[in-house]
């Protein structure tokens, strides 16, 4: 997303007589998420963009987008609108290292990509929720996740799917082991070494798609 060649193009945009540099339209981001298969619908793309903004990866710019943030409703904080302006938060641009470092072999990343998209993952230590770009590969079967704030193509983490279990979690009530801001559409992956990964999709349909895709490779 924040990539100089294939990501969102930032440019000067005007709103109510004021010009804002290095911004992009809310509708342009929604278009980009859909065209790159990270969201199946505009509603899913708006939900994902709202999560990215809540995590301070995106920042509202100007009157229209700032007013939406003040509404207080997460689902309505991001505007799919050609007059609402956004930019990448400077705090993310300046980050140079990840707290979730992992030793990766070339074999892990050699498999064919069968599915990718943005999901929200709970951290193992602080239990906070972070938006990550997930990439599912087969032969060998691995699920990797990337920090969308970094242009580098190195995963922030990943795990083998051999011997793993994946299942949906009910939305009524927060399961044991899950903390923080839970929006729903949860599923869990338990690896062969009994590590639990809690992940949120932007819709029930997306959750089903990911679960079915992962099950084929376990």
From TrEMBL:
Keywords of this entry: Acetylation, Phosphoprotein, Repeat
Keyword Repeat applies: yes
UniProt cross-references to SUPFAM superfamilies, sorted A to Z: PH domain-like (SSF50729), Winged helix' DNA-binding domain (SSF46785)
Domain PH: 112-218
Signal peptide: none
Occurrences of domain DEP (ranges): 4-90
GO cellular component terms attached to this protein's record: plasma membrane
Coiled-coil parts of chain: none
Stated name of the protein: Pleckstrin-2
Originating organism: Carlito syrichta
């Amino acid at each position: 997303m924040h990539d100089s060649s294939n990501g969102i193009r930032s440019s000067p945009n005007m709103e109510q007589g004021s010009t804002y540099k290095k911004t992009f339209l809310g509708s342009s981001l929604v278009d980009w998420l859909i065209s790159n298969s990270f969201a199946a619908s505009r509603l899913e793309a708006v939900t994902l963009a709202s999560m990215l903004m809540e995590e301070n990866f995106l920042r509202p710019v100007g009157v229209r987008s700032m007013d939406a943030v003040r509404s207080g409703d997460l689902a309505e904080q991001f505007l799919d609108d050609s007059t609402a302006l956004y930019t990448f938060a400077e705090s993310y641009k300046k980050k140079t290292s990840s707290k979730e470092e992992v030793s990766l072999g070339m074999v892990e990343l050699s498999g064919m990509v069968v599915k990718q998209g943005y999901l929200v993952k709970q951290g193992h230590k602080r239990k906070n929720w972070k938006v990550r770009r997930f990439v599912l590969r087969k032969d060998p079967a691995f699920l990797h996740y990337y920090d969308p704030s970094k242009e580098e193509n190195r995963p922030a983490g990943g795990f083998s799917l051999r011997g793993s279990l994946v299942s949906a979690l009910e939305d009524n009530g927060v399961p044991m082991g899950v903390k923080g801001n839970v929006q729903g559409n949860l599923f869990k992956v338990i690896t062969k070494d009994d590590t639990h990964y809690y992940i949120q999709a932007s819709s029930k349909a997306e959750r089903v798609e990911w679960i079915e895709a992962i099950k084929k490779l376990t």
